[in-house]
Every structure is written in C-alpha cells, then in structure tokens.
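Same chain as my last thread, 540 residues:
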Amino acid sequence: YQRRVRGLLNNFEENKTIAKLWEDKWLDVVSAEWELLDIVYYSERSLEDEISREGTATIPTVVLSYLLMLTYVSLALGDLPGLNKQLLVSTKFLLGLGGICIVISSLIISVGLCSAGGVEASLIIGEVIPFLVLAIGVDNIFILVNTYHKFPEHMSIDERIAQTLASVGPSITLASSSEALAFLLGTLTNMPAVIAFALYSSVAIIFDFLFQVTAFVALTTIDFKRQEANRVDCVPCIILEEPSDESENQLLPQTGKSEKKVSRLKRFFRDVYTPIIMHPTFKLLALLAAFALLFVCIANLVHLPMGLDQSTALPSDSYLLDYFDAQTDYLAVGPPLYIVIRDYYNYTDVEAQNRICSNPGCDPDSIVNQYDNAPYIAGTTYAWIDDYLSYTIADKCCLNWYAGPGRMMECYNESQPYCDGCYHLDPYDDNPRPTPEEFMLYLPRFLASDVNDDCKLTGQAYPADIVWADDDQTQIKTTRFRLYHSVLKDQSDFINALNTVYEVADDNPDLDISLIVYFISILNNTSKLSIFAHSLLAWL
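reply #2:
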C-alpha cells in the first residue's frame, strides 16, 4: 500500500527562518527508522542539499586530477633520455608545478573578482571550471615549450624564448581571446547558472593567459637555464656531470646526418601519421566520412531528449534516489499547479468573471476552461470563484436577518422571521450574478462558511488562495487557482507539461489579466525549455 503526503509552507520573507527550521525538523523526523513503514521523502531543499554534498565529495577527485596532470605535464615536457642519471635533469616537475599553480591562481582570482562583483557561485563553478581552465592552460603550456625546441641550439635561451613568443604569442592571444569571448556570450542567456558559469570561466581564462605570457615564460626561461647547467630538477643545487654528445644525437635514415634526439611521439607524427593523412586517397575518405557523420548527427538531432534526469546528479547513496524510483513506479498523481492572477483584477465585473471562471455562463475559452482542457492536466481546477458564484445562487447558503435600518445580521434558517437571501439576483437571468457591492461584502462570509444540511457549499478551502489589499477585506490584490498535473514520471514529461502551462498563459489574449503559473518543479525545468534555442544561438 502506498500513500503520498504533501505539505506546503508560506515562504514569506519574514517566515523564511522559521520555514527552514521547520523543514530541518521535518527531515529529521521522516528520515528516522519507522516500524512497519517504508518512507521515501523529498523536500524543496533536498535536491540542493544532496547536490551540494556531492560537490563536497568531488574535492578529492579534483585534487587527484591535478596531481595526475602535474605528473603527466612534467614528464611530457621533458626530454626523457631513458632510465639513467640524466633523467633527473630532463624532467620538468618544477616547471609543471609552476604551470599548475598558474591555473589555480587564475581560478582563485576569478572567484574573488566575480564574488566581489556580486556574481553568485553555483555548484558547476567548483566542479567544471577547474577542469576546463586546466585543459586550456596545459594546452598553451605545451605549445610554448614545444615551439621553444624548434629553434637552433646555438641561440641563447633568452633569444629562443623571445622567438617562441614572437612565433606563437599571437596565436595564443587570439585563441584565449576567442575562448573568453565565447564564454562571455553565455551571459546573453536568461539562465542565472549559465551566466555565472560564463563569467567565472571567461575571467579565469583571461588571467590564465596573462600569467602564461608573463610568469610562465619567466619560469620556462629559468627551467631551461637549469637544464642547460645540468642541474637536477626539484633539487637544482645538485649539478650532475655533463653527458656525452653521442648519447643525445641520432642519425637521420634519409641523410645520415646527426640531429638532436626527438621523442617517439614526434617521430610518429613525422614519419607515420603525416604521410598517411597527406595521401590523396585518405583525404577523400576523410572528407566523405566527415560529411556522412555530419548528416547522421543532423538527422538524429531531433531525437535528442531535452533535460537532465535529476537522479544522475545525485550521490549513489542519496535518499532521493529511492524517492524518484517510487515516484516512477507508484505515483498516481502529478505535482500541483498554481494559476496566480495579480495586480488587482476586477473580480466584481461580470465580464471579468467570465474570463476566468468555468461555471455555466463563463467564456468557453476562459482561463480555467483552457487549463482544464490542456494536456498533462488531471481533473478540474479548484477555483474559489466558481464555488463562490455557485454559493451566490444557492437558496439557503447565504441568509440575512433584517435588524433595522442599515443593520443586516447573518441567520442560518430561512424559516426565521425576516430572514432573506443575501443576494438580489435578476430572476430573469439564466446565469445571475451578484452586484459588485454584494460580491465583496459576502465573500469573507463564504470563505468562513461551514457545510450544513441546507448548504453543501463552503469556502473554507480557499482563504489561503486570496491575498487582500487591506485589512477590511474590501479589495482583492492577488488570487490563485489550484489544479494537478497528470502523472509526470520523467524529465520529458515535466518539460512538456511546463511548456503546455506556459503556452496556455502566453495564448491569453486579455491584457487585463496579469497571469503567472507555478509548480514545484518549475525551477528545475524552466531553463530546459529554451536550451535548444540558446545552444543554436551559441553555435551561430
């Protein structure tokens, strides 16, 4: 046997502290062990809490990744002669450490400047940007070092460094500028998380570039002078004996001349890969394969599902995984949806009533009727105005006793002397409505009325759906109508349901109605509605 229980809080600004404390206590209660009960639960803060916990758990992964990259960079930048003493000189752990520290420094500056500018950091800042900036920074490090080795050794180290910057400096500058600009274009979206990610990334890339063409160039100069002096990497105070020239040179098979020994990777690209890709047959095959892959991807692009399953972002031991599984397997009702009408709508006007109600006489395309007939909506709308209009035409629901001039007192049985109906309705109207004065005068009585044998209508379910403009309850500021979605089990259902909700709201031609819609999952799915458009804009 399964049962779903939902609780809602009034999250007014003055209630936030109390609401958070209540939610903490509620989570403690439902997470306890219960005999004969298997409870799966979810609160509005649960997803944020669990993703934050996952973010904390990824810190060791980030540290390990940087250590592995440090090791790789240090070995790859060096000229490894083999397992001998010269290996201690050829490795570049200090230079690699300097490059990694530059990346970390650019990240710290980015976080500091953006935080000072009021840009809030999101989880993606800590989980994605460190790897992104590391990849871009290491790429430029390899370009600088490999270009340095292309210049003749008879030149001094300072001259070779200068020629390196003159050769690849413009390319690195243009590449870094393009990368930073590409991320800045992400600020054109209306998604705060993407805007924050774009700003943090662009600032980190800019400072990483500045450090590479200044600090890293200086570190590279110092490290090559260390290697030229045959000093041990990481312990430069130790000087080894000079190696023999023969051990560093090899004969070229084509000319028989001697050249500086090159790495296996460079020899592979020079002697194997380049001749293959430059062959005319391979060029034709590569071109055909690229176009074929492009057309296949375009054909399947329309089948790409939008959204991200929330469970994929959670830790493997998260309690929310059981909740999402139970929601998929057992859930028989969708999340509640709220239609909010703001800005002092004129509820007393008959035409205005017809535009939002669903009773006989209301417009067929009224707000409530549109949502009742929309896809992904289950049942009918709980609209206070429909029940109130039914209340006004009921014979025995609202009765008054005339107690003298200007004095009307509520009575509960029309058999009492001088007891009469509250509303003076037109008997010749098929769909009579109360006057504006009567509408507002007796609305509070409807909201407080009890069900009895004579009247089966009550408004006690609706007081929270009306926000009054004054304490005297003479004018309505904002109201809401409540309804439920059909069963929504996956991200596609949630996105399609939300898209339907927005389409109905946007198709409302009446400019007098200030309408917004809300349901609990709206924050997790709103940005996904326009993700395709934003992606296309970025590609263009």
